Amino acid sequence: MARQAQPALPPPSGRRPTVLVLRALGLGDLLAGVPALRGVRQAFPDHETVLAAPASLGPAVRATGAVDAHFPTEENGRRVPPLGHWRGAAPDIAVDLHGNGPESHDALAELSPGRLLSYAHPEPGHPSPPRWRATEHERLRWCRLLEAHGIPADPGDVRIAPPALPSPAPGAVVLHPGADSAARRWPARRYAVVAEGLRAAGRRVVVTGGPGEAALCAEVARGAGLEPGDVFAGTLPFDRLSALVAGAALLVSGDTGPAHLAFAHGTPSVTLFGPVAPALWGPPPGRRHTVLWHPGPPGDPHAAEPDPLLLRLDAPRVLERALGTLRHGTTTKDVTAHA
C-alpha cells in the first residue's frame, strides 16, 4: 500500500495555556525559524505551542515537528496578516518571530497576551532588552531573542525528519531555478548548461518549480534535453517535494525555500546567492553545503531583475562545484569572484 502524506496540524485546542508564535512568511522563513520554534516548545512543555502561519504552509508546519497546532493566516505576502480571527482565550505568551517593525508586535498585542516577546518593544523592566542587528544571520537572530528572555535555543538545530513517502526521483540531482522574486533567479540558460554537464557525467537531473514556473522549468529542460518526466513544475505538494529533496544526491538552487529544505534534510546542496549575503541566510556549518557568492554591496531581494552579483556566477563554475560536491564533498563557502 502506498504511504500517504500526513494531514495538517489541528487548530488550537484551547485545553492548555497557549504560546502563540507569529511567523507568517514563506517556506524558507519557516524552516529558518525551526530552531527558535523548538526552543519555545521545549521551554514551555505544559503549554500548547501554536504557530500563526499561512494556511498554504500547513503540511510544512506539521513537518517541522516543532509546534503543536497551526493557526492559519491569510496569504499576505511578507506583510503582517490580521489575527482578528483568533477565537481562543488570550495567549499566555506571544512571540514575535515575524519582524522588527511595530506591525507584527501590534498584531499580537491586540490579542492581550500575558507576555509578549519582541524586538520591536522589549518587555518593560527587562534588564537587558535584545536589540535588532541588521547584519545578523536569520537563525541566530531569533534564537538570540529567546535567549535574552532565558529561553535556550540552538541555531544549528535545523534538521527535520524526511516524510514517509517515496521520492519521485530517488538519487537524482534536483535543479530548482525559480524564486519568489526575479532578483534571486539565476538565468534559465545557465541552469540548462549545468544540467547538461551533470547528465554528461552520468547523473539523472530533474527540475522543480512552484506554481507559475512551468515555462521557466520547460526552458531549462529544453536546453538540457530532459524528458517530460524529469520536470516537476507546480505538480508536487509539499510532502512529495520534501521526499524528492530528502532523497536527492544534490540540490542546486538559488536562495529560496527548497534550499532550506535541503539544509533541513541534510541533502548536499549548492546554493547561489546574489542580493542577500550567505552570512544572513546561508546553510548551517558542514561539508554538505556549498554557497556560491560574489561579494559586494547588498541588493534588493525583491527587485524585478536578476541581481548583478548573482549574474557574476557563471555556469562552468557552478557545474564544477556541483560535480565536486557529488564526488568528494566540499567546504561551506566559496566567495571567489566569478566572471
Describe this structure in words.
- The protein has 339 residues and is α/β, with parallel strands linked by helices.
- It folds into two domains: 18-147, 3-Layer(aba) Sandwich (Rossmann fold), CATH 3.40.50.2000; 173-334, Glycogen Phosphorylase B (Rossmann fold, 3-Layer(aba) Sandwich).
- The chain has twelve helices and twelve strands.
- The chain has helices spanning 27-32, 34-43, 58-64, 102-109, 138-147, 188-200, 214-224, 238-246, 257-265, 278-281, 308-311, 315-328; strands at 18-22, 48-54, 69-73, 93-96, 115-117, 173-176, 205-209, 231-233, 250-254, 269-272, 289-292, 333-334.
- The strands form two sheets. A seven-stranded parallel β-sheet has the order 8-7-6-9-10-11-12, with helices on both faces. It has a five-stranded parallel β-sheet with strand order 3-2-1-4-5, sandwiched between helices.
- Helix 6 packs across helix 12.
- The longest helix is centred in the last third of the chain and has 14 residues, at 315-328.
- The protein is globular.
- The model is unreliable at 330-339 (pLDDT under 50).
CATH superfamily of the largest domain: Glycogen Phosphorylase B
Overall tally of domains: 2
Mean pLDDT: 92
Given this structure, which CATH class of the largest domain is correct? Alpha Beta
Span between N and C termini? 51 Å
Overall shape: it is: globular
CATH architecture of the largest domain: 3-Layer(aba) Sandwich
User: Strand pairing plus helix content: what structural class?
Assistant: alpha/beta
Q: What is the H/E order?
A: EHHEHEEHEHEHEHEHEHEHEHHE
CATH topology of the largest domain: Rossmann fold
Low-pLDDT stretches? 330-339
Share of residues in strands: 15-25%
The largest sheet has its strands arranged as 8-7-6-9-10-11-12
How many β-strand stretches?
12
